[in-house]
Design goal:
heterodimer; A: alpha+beta; Immunoglobulin-like; 2 domains; 6-stranded mixed β-sheet; 12 strands; B: mainly alpha; two-stranded antiparallel ribbon; 71% helix; globular; transmembrane (chain A); transmembrane helix (chain A); membrane (chain A)
């Protein structure tokens, strides 16, 4: 039995040894300042290998970028007594705040179902929803709604065919980060696949951070909430008074 | 010009916010309403998270009301004594309202209740005000003198007090009750409560319209300042950058609005406010009655 596991483990690691990813990022930190309006990150790299390039099946590249996960409640409206009200709700245990997949060909062609389940690559796999209440029989439609809403707002992206691969060795793609970006470590994964099987994998993180005034205000609002509240009020009253003063000068 | 809001964590157009602030500010100065019942839905619409919109809105109302009330102080159209009595009632009501709100939240469906509250109150108040002002305008055209205030049961109550600016000599009990009621509703509906307060002062207390606006603004400042502190310390949802953008437009708008309000006849002012209140009511009612294009909505887990 143990020997079998060893052989299996050896077979598993073998492809990863054969082709390795050397990665570069145009930047590994995204700074959110006051005039932040989205960002674009260039992800590029090369495949390092000892032996000659296997001809078939061709090398495919998948790049995923995923934001910090959060719990999300998905609610559904129904008509009750003539008005539309929220009735059923399903809690999705883990949904990334942002998720982008870029592939060199159609996702279905570059990854088998089994590999997708193992590595959680496609958008439905990246979301984890376990417990729906007993009275809800169609819990999938809630996950589908979550994906649909997030895709419409550009928070989830599936960009098929946007990774360009040259000579089965060099690859590059650009990931667009939207303006409504939350802070956190954005896990970035690169998969090399052949015939739908993952032959190599590389993980790194892109750090998204608030800087300058954004950082300062955010920290103050959390650590010194009372002071922050007073400051907000003081600004409001000062602005109200200033406008009144300016206008009375105009009238004279 | 796009600006990233540190608490809301979204990027929005700064000029859009300045414009929205200005528009609501004009209305606020004209009618003595905080404008929260208009601004909050507008903020939802441009993609600000609801919790942040409600909290930040309170902070912005402080600014536009302060600016508006100063303009009214110059014209001596603020009844400080009446304002204080209403404020005492209002704070008691707000505290009660928060308790009611939390109770409703534990039952679920708080969103629906808030919306229904809006539809019912906006509808009733707007409708009554519209009819009354229409009648008043017709009377003025016919050359009839406005009906003199009648003595009713309100004048029979004890604890009488003289409100010189309003020209009233009535018991403090009705204004206190008005204050408490408005406070409760304001806390549940998440607004300053001006749109309920203004008609209540005119029709229940019999105050002159010119004094009502300044006095209402005076009271709103304190209620919304209280709400702002509450949101900032418990939910961390006050976005000061968003507030500043809204209030720069808002305070300027409030000054312009106050000047427009002074030039207009009381009946015209009231009928315009009535139309506005009815319009918002109609929009909310349609949202409840028509099938939404997206049946599903996303929310933070645990919240509402």
């Amino acid at each position: 039995m143990r020997a079998l596991i060893l052989v299996f483990a050896f077979l598993m690691t073998l492809p990863a040894m054969a082709e390795q990813i050397v990665l570069g990022l145009s930047k590994d930190t995204v700074s959110i300042n006051t005039n932040f309006d989205g960002s674009e990150i260039l992800i590029f790299g090369a495949v390092k290998r000892e032996e000659r390039i296997p001809d078939e099946p061709r090398l495919q590249v998948i790049v995923t970028v995923s934001g910090p996960s959060e719990r999300v409640t998905v609610r559904r409206k129904e008509k009750r007594l003539g008005i539309w009200v929220n009735t059923d709700a399903v809690e999705v245990d883990r949904a990334p705040s942002f998720y982008a997949i870029s592939t060199s060909t159609l996702l279905g062609l570059s990854l088998t179902e089994t590999e997708d389940i193992r590595h959680k690559v496609s958008i439905p796999r990246a979301i984890r929803s376990v417990g729906a209440p007993m009275n809800i029989t169609d819990s999938e439609s809630f996950s589908e709604a979550l994906i649909r809403i997030k895709m419409n707002s550009g928070q989830y992206q599936l960009n098929e065919g946007t990774v360009s691969v040259d000579e089965q060795t060099l690859f590059r793609t650009a990931i667009k980060l939207p303006a409504a970006l939350t802070e956190g470590d954005y896990q970035t994964r690169i998969f090399l696949t052949r015939g739908g099987e993952v032959v190599s994998k590389y993980e790194t993180s892109i750090f998204v951070r608030k800087v300058g005034m954004e950082r300062w205000l955010f920290n103050l609002s959390r650590e010194n909430a009372f002071l922050y509240g007073l400051m907000s009020l003081a600004i409001a009253i000062a602005a109200g008074w200033a406008a009144s003063a300016v206008f009375s000068v105009f009238r004279r | 010009m796009q600006i990233y809001l540190p608490i809301a964590e979204v990027s929005v157009n700064a000029f859009l916010l300045l414009g929205l602030g200005g528009l609501v500010g004009v209305l606020s100065g004209m009618f003595g309403v905080g404008g929260g019942f208009l601004m909050t839905p507008l903020l939802f619409f441009i993609g600000i998270p609801p919790a942040v919109a409600v909290a930040t809105e309170a902070n912005q109302i402080v600014a536009s009301s302060f600016s508006g009330v100063l303009a009214h102080f110059k014209r001596k159209t603020v009844d400080l004594r009446m304002g204080t009595v209403l404020l005492i009632g209002g704070l008691i009501g707000a505290a009660l309202g928060v308790m009611v709100f939390n109770y409703l939240k534990s039952l679920g469906q708080v969103d629906l209740l808030v919306k229904l509250c809006y539809v019912v109150f906006l509808g009733v108040i707007g409708g009554l005000m519209f009819l009354e002002s229409l009648r008043a305008i017709r009377n003025v055209k016919k050359g009839k003198a406005p009906a003199r205030k009648k003595h009713n049961w309100i004048h029979g109550l004890p604890l009488k007090m003289r409100f010189r600016v309003s020209g009233l000599y009535i018991s403090v009990i009705p204004p206190l009750i008005v204050g408490v009621t408005v406070g409760i509703l304001a806390a549940i509906m998440g607004v300053g409560g001006g749109f309920i307060m203004v008609p209540a002062m005119i029709y229940l207390l019999g105050m002159p319209t010119k004094v009502v606006v300044g006095t209402s603004l005076f009271q709103i400042i304190f209620v919304t300042a209280f709400t702002t502190m509450l949101h900032a310390t418990t939910n961390y949802t006050v976005d000061v950058v968003l507030a500043v953008l809204l209030l720069v437009g808002g305070v300027i708008g409030a000054q312009i609005g106050t000047r427009i309000g002074v030039k207009m006849k009381a009946e015209q002012l009231r009928i315009l406010l009535a139309i506005m209140v009815l319009a918002v009511c109609g929009k909310l009612a349609l949202d409840l009655l028509l099938q939404p294009t997206e049946l599903y909505s996303l929310g933070a887990a645990g919240g509402h």
